Amino acid sequence: MNKKTILLVEDNPDDEILTLRALKKDNLANKITVARDGEEALEYLFGKNHDGNDLPVLIILDLKLPKIGGIEVLRKIRSEKKTKLLPVVILTSSNEEKDLIESYSLGANSYIRKPVDFNQFLEAARQLKLYWLVLNESPPVR
Amino acid sequence: MLIKLKQFAKSLSFKVGIVIILVEIITLSILGVFYINRFSIEVDQRINHNAQLPGLLINEGVLDLDAIADSEIMHHIVGEELLSGMIIGINGTIYCSHDNKFLGKNISQIDNVDHALLDFNNTQIQSYFFKDRIISFSPIFASDKITPQFFVYIELDTRETNTEKEINRNIFILGSVLTILITSIIIIMVFSRTVTRRVHSLTKILRQAEKGDLTVRSNYISSGDEIGIIQLRTNAMLAANQEFKEKQIKAQKELKKYSENLEAMVRERTIKLGVINKELEAFSYSVSHDLRAPLRGIDGFSQALLEDYESKLDKQGKDYLNRIRSATSRMSELINDLLSLSRIAQKKLNYEKVNLSKMVNEIVEDYKKLQPEREIEFKIVPMLTTAGDKKLIRIVLENLLSNAIKYTKNNNNTIVKFESININRSKVFVIRDNGVGFDMTYKDKLFVPFQRLHSQLEFEGTGIGLAIVQRIINLHNGKVWAESQVGKGAAFYFTLKS
User: Fold this and answer.
1) Domain of A93?
2) Dihedral angle at the C-alpha atoms of B173, B176, B178, B181, nearest 10 degrees?
3) A129, part of any domain
């Protein structure tokens, strides 16, 4: 299980470093793969170079992404048979009601707003990890 | 036919006709009484004169007493109506008569004579009128012309003169009736020609005008009479109305054109406004997302520096980094406030009944839990209700109450009141405190976003609360204002309209 990958979809390099730092702070052993836009994320999940074994255990998805937006990525994930049960956590700056509603109605497992205060961000990341990687049972891989 | 008669019975001509007939009947009746009476008197006088004539002639010496018995002479003098003629002595003895069988007899012995009437002591001529006869009893004087020697008794038949009177009366009545009929017909015709027809034509014109045709005019004849004046005024009125109607139609056309223009303008503006709104939404989204990201970087890396390079930083370095962090946190607060302000402006109101007193109580209970160390006396008037958007009104009350609590933090005994007053018959809600208050010179700056009357050090805050309050109140078509004196507390008033 520790070998399993977390897919972080994040276009902002600062946020990427900070998120990775936060996730690693508690000695997380998971491999973290970063996709820098929606296209890259979809390529990682559905591209020819990857088979079912490489599916991540958790996807952390930003909404505002270049090329293909986070909402579109989520829609694609939920519409494909092999990925539709993957836990997806939305991690975004937006606190627009419509983003929240859209994410949940498309089947996001969690919606976390990136706080400006990094302490809060750390706490959020810690909770995320604890819940999705330690407590939660992953769906069976087919 | 019956309807026409009924209409005629109601017409002015008929009424005038009736009046004229009545007047004529009264006039002719009065005239008739005088005339018929006069005629009857004349006839009576004539026959009376005839009856008295033999007496007069004897007294004049023109006629002998014997002549009374001579029917030829008598008929010649008094006429064919003679019934009897006698010369009677003062003792009643008949000396001379048209009928020889009366001679020598006393008048009282004769059946046909009403002898009780005859007065032999009277020296005046006596005349007695009966239904169909007249009796004249004239004294014949002696040579002294004072003492009566004989009386002449003349009785005349008046049946013929009565008939004459009757015929005369009938002719008069017939003439009157004919006169009445002819004059009334003539008058009705003349009246109809001069009044009724003109009134009818006027009525017709007015009816046409009533139906909307204001171009019709009465054929005005300058007769100068009242109807002529009515015709003239009607024409003037119709002309004025026509002018007014034309103006009205013109104005309506202009108004329609204007309103069409206005509609087009409104449509255009609405589209533009929609575009602006969309842009504003995109802007809000962008602010929410993009402005926050660099801040997170600044704060995150400051924190990383503080944690990962703690040993390499001296006290001042750490202080600087902490200052960077608190500045970013304040920037983040400002961004949040800006966002909430712009979101409220775009909100659609969801009107419902709101119990303000209950809401104030709930907010106050929350504050008591958050700041249990503060001792505040809340005076909340119960059951103050209004209509409005519950969520937004709650934001208003939260802001005003949090201000009241914030600006009384240096007080020894704090009192915060919620009540309502009536100003010009409209309900005004008030939140009062006995805090630091503010200088009324700056009251206009209170509601401007990010404008503050106190420093961040004295009282924390971004200056967005009252701007949000004003926006929400504006959305409800209400008003919000404040009154205060430095050091004597502040009162915030607001009204809400449905």
Assistant:
1) 5-135
2) -130
3) yes
Distances (CA, A) of B243 to A48, B136, B218, B248, B252: 87, 90, 17, 9, 14
In whole angstroms, give the CA distance from residue B365 to residue B296: 34
**What angle (nearest 5°) sits at the alpha carbon of residue B86, between those of residues B82 and B87?**
145
| A28 belongs to a structural domain | yes
Residues of B within 8 A of A64 (CB-CB) are 289-290
**Residues on chain A touching B301 (C-beta within 8 angstroms):** 14, 18
A141 lies in some domain:
no
CB A8 within 8 A of CB A35: yes
Contact call for B288 and A94, based on CB within 8 A: yes
When divided into structural domains, chain A yields a total of 1
The average pLDDT across B14-31 equals 87
pLDDT band at B101 (very low <50, low <70, confident <90, very high): confident
How many Å apart are CA B341 and CA B283, to the nearest integer? 13
| B48-83 pLDDT tens trace | 888 888 888 888 888 888 888 888 888 888 888 888
Q: Is the dihedral of CA B481, B484, B486, B489 positive or negative?
A: negative
Closest CA of chain B from A137, distance in Å: 31
Nearest 5°: phi and psi at B221? -110, 130
Tokens found for residue B166: 């009757």
Q: Which 3 state secondary structure label does DSSP give A23?
A: helix
Cα–Cα distances (Å) from B180 to B23, B38, B170, B191, B196, in that order, read: 10, 22, 15, 16, 21
Query: Residue A126 is part of a domain; what is its CATH number?
Result: 3.40.50.2300
Q: Can you tell me the mean pLDDT for B269-298? A: 81
- pLDDT tens for A10-19 read 988 888 888 8
**Cβ B361 vs Cβ B418: under 8 Å:** no
Structure tokens that stand for B204 in this block: 């017709």
**CA–CA distance, B465 with B418 (Å, rounded to integer):** 18
Between the CA of residue A29 and those of A4, A94, B387, what are the distances in Å? 9, 29, 57
Cβ <8 Å between B332 and A116 = yes
Q: Tokens 């502040």 — which residue?
A: B490
- What gap in Å lies between CA B388 and CA B253, rounded to an integer? 41
Does any CB of chain B come closer than 8 Å to the CB of residue A21?
yes
| Closest residue to B300, CB basis, from A18, A92, A96 | A18
Indicate the pTM of the whole model: 0.49
Within 13 Å, how many C-alpha atoms sit on residue B148's CB side? 21
Choose the mutation target among A64, A118, A119, A122 for the interface with B, i.e. most B CBs under 10 Å. A118
pLDDT in tens, B229-250: 888 888 888 899 999 999 999 9
Using alpha carbons, select from B350, B340, B349, B346 the residue that is nearest to residue B274. Answer: B346
The complex's ipTM works out to 0.74
The answer to whether residues B85 and B54 touch, using CB atoms and an 8 Å cutoff, is: yes
Tokens 């020598």 correspond to what residue?
B104
On whether residue A142 sits in a domain, the answer given is: no
Measure the CA–CA gap between A80 and B236, rounded to whole angstroms.
Answer: 88
What integer pLDDT is reported at residue B343 of this predicted model? 75
Closest CA to A36 of A63, A65, A6, A58: A65
Torsion from C-alpha of B267, B269, B271, B275, nearest 10 degrees = -170
pLDDT over 70 at A134, yes or no: no
Q: How far is B382 from chain A (nearest CA, A)?
A: 35
